[in-house]
Amino acid sequence: HDFQPSAIPRRRHNMDTSPFFLAPPAKAENRVTYKVHPLVVFNILDHYRRREKEQKRVVGTLIGETLRGPEGKIVHIKNCFPIPHLEREDEVEIDFVYHKSMAALQKRLNSNETVVGWYSTGIEISYTSSLIHEEFTRKYKQPVHLLVDATLTGNKLSVQGYIGKTLRVEGKEEGVIAQFEKVKTELSTSDATKIAIDAMINGTPDERKKIDSPLTMQTEVDNLHGSLLNLLDLLEKVSEYVDKVTAGDKKSTTEIGAAIKDALAAIPRIEPEMFTRMFNQKTEDLLMILYLSNITRAQVALGNRIYEVLE
Q1: pTM, entire model
Q2: Residue 27 to residue 32: CA distance in whole angstroms
Q3: Per-residue confidence at 31, pLDDT binned at 50, 70, 90?
Q4: First to last CA, the chain
Q5: Residues 212, 229: Cα–Cα separation, whole Å
Q6: pLDDT, tens digit, for every residue of 92-135?
Q7: Is the torsion defined by CA of 15, 93, 44, 103 positive or negative?
Q8: How far apart are CA 148 and CA 41, in angstroms?
Q9: Comparing 209 with 49, which gets the higher pLDDT?
Q10: Do 37 and 189 form a contact (C-beta atoms < 8 A)?
Q11: What is the rounded CA–CA span in Å between residue 245 and residue 251?
Q12: How far apart (Å, rounded) are the C-alpha atoms in residues 216 and 207?
């Protein structure tokens, strides 16, 4: 795709201070919750990893869906795509032709999802960010600006959301100052997503020195062993907490007590003898399946060897 930049004109100002400022958080009745799905963060980090050497940051479009629930308006940011751009000191050029074609394609794939904002990498909002945000504001209603710290400052992945508006002076057409307001941003994950993320975290890179090295996933037995160790560690912590509360060394809270009660109530009551019998039966079934699979693998290898000899 040929890069067709759409120039955002340079804006001059006579102020000594920064051409934008961060406003206080929005009032409770005006707040919107933005839930970012892990796929979005992964795509942004991958985009930053594959950027050109001269690029200091990357920008792109956010795709999502707006829903209303008991807690108010919730914007689910589910996907994103990069936008080619050129950036200098106080001006920026963005390929909005590419953005428009990709947004139309996303709309065809899922009609419920629309453009909800844009993203950039970094730790602070720059003057060019206010220019980009103003362009998105002209095209979309109240877009969100997602700022992702891809350099992991302080060994922490920071994902912050901002909404902005341009303040204007009567009699002037161009905006003078952009006000960015921090919004509530949460990482939203499903059970399946959590399992996938845990698998990637616990996996071992084939080449530890290479960032893009393929990852070897743990076997089912290793995953089961790790899960049991984590469960045992949690049980020991809960047991230690209960012992301290019972002895009067620690003050209990209603929230923690209710959480422990709900966790225990969710566990079915099974007699130790019955649990042991069920476990042994399942273990025997798994061993039988493993035995049959090994026999099948050996027969296939033997058949291939005989076929090679006969030829």
Answers
A1: 0.62
A2: 10
A3: confident
A4: 51
A5: 29
A6: 888 999 999 999 999 998 989 999 999 999 988 888 888 888 88
A7: positive
A8: 8
A9: 49
A10: yes
A11: 6
A12: 10
Chain position carrying tokens 């049991």: 228
What pLDDT digit, counting tens, does each position of 222-268 carry? Answer: 778 888 888 899 899 999 999 998 888 888 888 888 888 888 888 88
Which residue has tokens 């890069």?
3
Q: Which residues contact 113 (CB under 8 A, 6 or more apart)?
A: 63, 64, 65, 78, 79, 106, 107
Q: Which two tokens stand for residue 17?
A: 């201070």
What is the total residue count of the chain? 311
Residue 152 exposed, middle or buried by CB count within 10 Å (0-12, 13-18, 19+) = exposed
d(CA 10, CA 292): 71
3-state per-residue secondary structure call for the chain: CCCCCEEECCCCCCCCCCCEEEECCCCHHHCCEEEECHHHHHHHHHHHHCCCCCCCCCEEEEEEEEEEECCEEEEEEEEEEECCEEECCCCEEECHHHHHHHHHHHHHHCCCCEEEEEEEECCCCCHHHHHHHHHHHHHCCCCEEEEECCCCHHHCCCEEEEEEEEECCCCCCCCCEEEEEEEEEEECCCHHHHHHHHHHHHCEECCCCCCCCCEECCCHHHHHHHHHHHHHHHHHHHHHHHHHHHHCCCCCCHHHHHHHHHHHHCCCCCCHHHHHHHHHHHHHHHHHHHHHHHHHHHHHHHHHHHHHHHC
